[in-house]
Structures are given as structure tokens and as C-alpha cells.
Amino acid sequence: MDNNINLKENGEDTMKMAKEVMSLLNDQEAVKVLTSVSADGIPHSVVVGSAMAPEEGMIAAAEILMQTTSKNLAENSNVTVLAVKGMESYQVTATVKERQTEGPLFENVKAELAKHGMTVRGLWLFEPVEAFNQGAGPDAGKKIS
Fold first, then answer.
1. Residues 6+ apart with CB under 8 A from 100
2. 116's torsion region: left (phi>0), alpha (psi -120 to 50) or beta?
3. Is residue 141 a part of any domain in this protein?
């Protein structure tokens, strides 16, 4: 069974996340949950405090522990990232773009997390496909990007 369905249509441009989505993803006080899916179709969710949006067409998450998550990301490129702070919440579906172990973004994230005693083994980059408002309010479930 092929669980690695490409969420992106061929030839589609990279989605640009709305400013409010990027703002919440980059808010250090927001809770961010990354959900990956195993080759067997079993979802696995983890809180990833390092998740961020370094640009409007990219989400990044540092690999600090992530044994199950990393295995899933290598087997199935489809993920969701949920960011929540108070009543505000956005869910972004995305696909794995690459895993970095060097380069400017990786080195910057590695240095920042080292200040907190964390060792970064890799940096996963995701390409957003679509985003939804998941906040508690009348726009819950509304596609915004």
C-alpha cells in the first residue's frame, strides 16, 4: 500500500502562508504539534517547540529526539503542523522537502537550540500545501491559504 500520496498537484507553485499563520508558527509561546504518518498509516503526533516558518513557503522543525517521527518522515512525506495559542489556532498540511544536516539555516537553528542544552541532529524542511483556521470561533475549519 502506497501511503506516500503527493498532496501537491504537479506543476503547482509553492503555497505562500498567510501572515497570521506565519506569525503563530514563529511565536515561541505557541504550542506546535507535528503529526507524521507511518508507512502503515498510523499517525504519530509530537510537540515540536522548534517548529517555525523561516519564509512564507517553508516550515522547519529541528530533529532533537524524534526517532519515530524521523522514521515516518522518511517513509511518508505527508505531515500536518498545528499551532495553537489561546483561542488562535492554524493547521498547515505540508510535504517533506528535505532534511538538512548543514547549511546556514541548520547552523543557525543548531546554535540557538544549543543555548538551551539541546543537540540538533537534523533540520526537517516542509513545503506547505494548504492552511486552515482551527481556532475556536466562527471561522473554524475555513481554508485560509
1. 106, 122, 123, 124, 125
2. alpha
3. no
| Total domains in the fold of the chain | 1
Q: What is the 3-state secondary structure (H, E, C) of 99-113?
A: EECCCHHHHHHHHHH
Q: In this structure, what C-alpha cell is assigned to residue 133?
A: 483556521
Q: What is the CATH number of the domain that holds 126?
A: 2.30.110.10
Sign of CA dihedral 29, 118, 66, 18: positive
Please tell me the pTM assigned to this model: 0.89
Asked whether residue 7 is assigned to any structural domain, the reply reads no
pLDDT in tens, 70-98: 999 999 999 999 999 999 999 999 999 99
pLDDT digits (tens, 9 = 90+) for 41-54: 999 999 999 999 99
Give pLDDT, residue 145: 78
How many other C-beta atoms can be found within 10 angstroms of the C-beta atom of residue 51?
23
